[in-house]
Specification:
Length: 138
């Protein structure tokens, strides 16, 4: 298990073990499946952000994100960062903001969200958009 804040900033290392390709900027979440779908990293001469499908990640640890392929996903879904995102229940009640997210580094499954109002089980997520993360009310 790791937290999104622990992964952000980690070097992205290619399969050949050469120097880092860049550093993780964020993780894209598929709310429907409750998993991380893409790793986003920035690197290279012009610092362009690249989206890499989670399937291309071979290992995640405290020192680096090792990838099996560095091929960008040109069909990556729109990205909405969970960290700092406003939370609303499906009944329209505010539920604070997301401080961090715990996830399983092997399966990419979200485990829990840590919010300004306490811990929220990941299975309560319903949708994520420009304005807010929508969760099922208690």
């Amino acid at each position: 298990m790791m937290l999104f804040t622990e992964v952000r900033g980690l070097p992205v290392v290619p399969p050949d073990g050469a120097g880092p390709l860049g550093a993780v900027t964020s993780l894209t979440v598929d709310v429907v499946s409750g998993t991380v779908s893409h790793v986003r990293w920035r690197g290279g001469r012009f610092g362009r952000e690249t989206a890499l499908p989670w399937d291309a990640v071979s290992a995640v640890g405290p020192g680096a994100v090792r990838v099996g392929s560095a091929a960008a996903d040109t069909s990556a879904p729109p990205h909405h960062d969970l960290l700092g995102r406003r939370i609303l229940t499906d009944t329209g009640t505010g539920y604070g903001t997301v401080l961090d997210v715990a996830f399983d580094t092997r399966t990419a499954r979200l485990l829990a969200l840590f919010t300004t109002r306490g811990e929220l089980p990941a299975d309560r997520l319903l949708g994520l958009g420009d304005y807010a993360l929508i969760v099922r009310a208690d």
